[in-house]
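Re: that backbone. Tokens:
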């Protein structure tokens, strides 16, 4: 029986938790990502719930007897996180590193420079990899139950315009996510070739083709393309992915596992049906990784309720959704009197109230969400104003302007 499996299984049954487990050369890892510390949901602070998740994570690592914790990007929600988020991360790393090695990388929400500051001064057992120059240099973990060494290759989020000079072989790579990820993986495979018999794990924060996105992931398009093919990760045993908020496994090579563990909390109503998980990783001396899924704590459910206001109100206090975070879409022909006060009284945690009459023909609405291509929205605006779609030259100007604005904003 793997180390700690029986006792941990009993604890999971009592606590009703769900985990992703992967086996690496007799070693056990916890794979997690997209904490987004400091994020809000419709203006409501999430730090208390994020702290509860990290408490759960610490207990899970101890109960599973994990050798390492892999955090695949978007540790913070923005480049300059609030002080409380920094303090929360410091406390979590201190507790996690008491029993396991910790490897973490920045995602597209983090500032690699700020997150990576002081990496060389981290306590033993905490490996923070934020510099693209370090790509191809593994964190070597060994001494698991079956012995042997596992090479973990942490890849920080690779913004093409920032890293194509660093990762190019004497000249810049092509300006795309696929090109910079392929260059990074070339370095990984070159290092791995000198370590015969070593099992391998790659940590990557990217949108891999075949993955299902949510509204809450930030756009990372460059040149109109935001994804990389799964084949770019050929040659490694387990790919610990971050960026997409829904837990999902993608197709890779035979005996290879490509796994998104997803975010531990729901950060948009598009995620309300997702089962949020933490990921534990175990890899044997040979063969594919085994994956077991265990739920993360749910601080408050998300619900979207659609219908006439009088039909929705009974579902509030004392009803099925009285304690949920709620989005109300009210379909009465006329706007109900005192809509917001009545909604708030019935649903203390209501986050959004919209009046959308069911029988009134409304003009088409353009949904502006993080999942929409901003350039596509610009094209629709030009068509609306001028009555004609932009030509190729105008489209190139729009694309360049958007990408320059996004770079300045980040």
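Recovered sequence:
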């Amino acid at each position: 029986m793997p180390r700690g499996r029986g006792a941990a299984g009993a604890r999971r049954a009592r606590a009703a938790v769900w985990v992703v487990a992967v086996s690496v050369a007799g070693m056990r890892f916890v794979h997690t990502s997209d904490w987004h510390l400091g994020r809000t949901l419709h203006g409501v602070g999430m730090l208390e719930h994020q702290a509860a998740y990290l408490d759960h994570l610490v207990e899970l690592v101890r109960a599973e007897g994990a050798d390492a914790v892999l955090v695949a990007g978007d540790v913070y929600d923005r480049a300059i996180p609030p002080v409380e988020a920094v303090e929360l991360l410091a406390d979590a790393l201190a507790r996690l590193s008491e029993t396991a090695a910790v490897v973490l990388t920045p995602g597209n929400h983090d500032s690699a420079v700020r997150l990576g500051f002081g990496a060389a001064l981290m306590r033993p057992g905490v490996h923070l990899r934020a510099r693209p120059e370090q790509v191809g240099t593994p964190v070597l973990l060994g001494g698991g139950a079956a012995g042997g060494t596992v090479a973990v290759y942490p890849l920080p989020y690779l913004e093409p315009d920032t890293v194509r000079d660093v990762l190019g072989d004497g000249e810049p790579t092509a300006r795309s996510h696929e090109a910079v990820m392929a260059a990074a993986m070339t370095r990984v495979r070159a290092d791995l070739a000198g370590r015969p018999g070593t099992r391998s794990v790659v940590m990557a924060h990217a949108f891999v083709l075949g993955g299902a996105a949510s509204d809450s992931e930030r756009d990372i398009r460059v040149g109109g393309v935001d994804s990389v093919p799964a084949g770019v990760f050929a040659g490694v045993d387990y790919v610990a992915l971050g960026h997409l908020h829904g837990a999902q496994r993608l197709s890779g090579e035979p005996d290879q596992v490509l796994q998104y563990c997803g975010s531990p909390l729901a950060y948009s109503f598009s995620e309300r049906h997702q089962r949020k998980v933490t990921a534990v990783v175990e890899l044997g001396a040979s063969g594919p990784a085994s994956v077991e899924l265990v739920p993360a704590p749910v601080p408050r459910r998300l619900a979207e309720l659609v219908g006439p206001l009088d039909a929705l109100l009974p579902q509030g206090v004392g009803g099925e959704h009285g304690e949920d975070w709620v989005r109300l879409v009210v379909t009465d022909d006329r706007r109900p009197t005192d809509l917001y006060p009545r909604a708030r009284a019935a649903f203390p945690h209501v986050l959004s109230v919209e009046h959308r009459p069911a029988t009134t023909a409304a003009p088409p609405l353009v949904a502006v969400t993080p999942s929409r291509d901003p350039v596509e929205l610009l094209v629709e605006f030009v068509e609306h104003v001028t009555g004609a779609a932009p030509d190729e030259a105008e489209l190139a100007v729009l694309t360049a302007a958007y990408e320059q604005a996004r770079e300045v904003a980040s």
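The longest helix spans residues 47-64. Residues 1-25 have pLDDT under 50 and may be disordered.
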